[in-house]
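Put briefly, the fold is written as integer tokens. The lines below illustrate.
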Amino acid sequence: MTRRPPRHRVGSTYVLVLLVSAMVVTIGLSSMTVARLGHEETVGMGDVIAAHSVAIAGIEHAHHEIMLAIDSVSSSPTDWRTVVTDLPHGPFTVGGGSFTWVISDPTDDDLTDDTRDPVAVTVTAQSGTSTEIVRFTLAPGPGAAGLSCLQSALHAGGQVNFDGAFLSSDGVLSTNADFVANADIYASVEASGTVTGSTYHQPTLAGAASRDLPGTSALEYYLAHGTYLPMSAMEHVGSTDQHSDLQDLVLTPTLNPFGPPNPEGIYIVDCEGRHLKIKNSRIIGTIIVINADPAKPTKIEKSLTWQPAFPNYPALLVEGDLIFKLEDPPLNEAARFTNFNPVGAPFQGFTNATQTDDFPNVIKGLFYATGHVQFQEDNTNGEQYIEGVIVAGGNVTCTDNPEAHIRYEDTWALDPPPGFAEPTGPHALVPGSFVRIVN
């Protein structure tokens, strides 16, 4: 599903050809106009054409300097924007005119906060009485592999602290800070800081390299392509904590009980200041949770049979904090008065119209929260089963002695979804971003 453009040396040449070609076409049109003008008008139009040529030189210069900056910091690619910002940007004299150029971040005006943000390049060219401003946007293309955090079964940007838990995984549990445990940890552990506590039943590594986390634009693709689910239709009537429940339903790319289905299975819940509980449902898709109550995390609880619509897509993206509180029993149709494999949503190839089936209580996919992640014990003292990857921008903790098992899959590391790929430099021209202003 993801696109992989060429590496920046090849792609950058193509971008330059596109930009210069666009400028040459406009020069050609201007030259045709000159042939139809009188002498005084021709003098002014000559300045316009000359400014065109200077602008082309400015585009080539800016593009060359950006590519040199990327190459100069190839061992630490997050620094190239700082290098470009510190460069002289003109005025540079060429022919009978001059040009200057600058770069900016059109997303949040901060060039240093996120290498996945696009870069706007503005070239201002002057010749005689004419000024030409050319602006275009370059966006970093995805790399050949996913972010390094996707190489772990569980990764935290902050501290991991397990107290009284039982956690197992065939993958790595990692953190960009310290790993503290007073629990049974049956998994390899890596921490950029220290590893302390007990009991670790597999190798541990302190002082490990930090892993890359998703940037601030990680949710953009899904917000642009998703279908909103009405929070009001999910409101928990009679609740005292202002929450809504996504429960007792089947949600897929072809079935949406609230309205038109989304062909990519991307569904957005705008919590509008409340919080959301996802439970007792069968989901084939990606859920995006935004604007939740910052004091009350989004919660995955009870029984769920959940996987993304496309193998390399996320299952859940949460703006804020997330709690895992799954129970042991399977998803039972009779208990929920719901048919979880109706026509249009076969399970293992089968559909029916009954309410007598059980479904495995397993969630599968990439689960990402921009804030903290917590594991909680459920009321049945059961075990939680997750297949895939869990990533927290903040800390990972536990309460009430939960038992969780994470079976790691490298699907997302090898074939990263939008927003989770390593950047390779700004070599992709954003369609429709080329703007030309002539004064």
Notes: The longest strand covers residues 160-175. The chain has six helices and 29 strands. Residues 1-12, 25-40 have pLDDT under 50 and may be disordered. Helices lie at 8-34, 39-72, 80-85, 220-225, 333-336, 411-414.
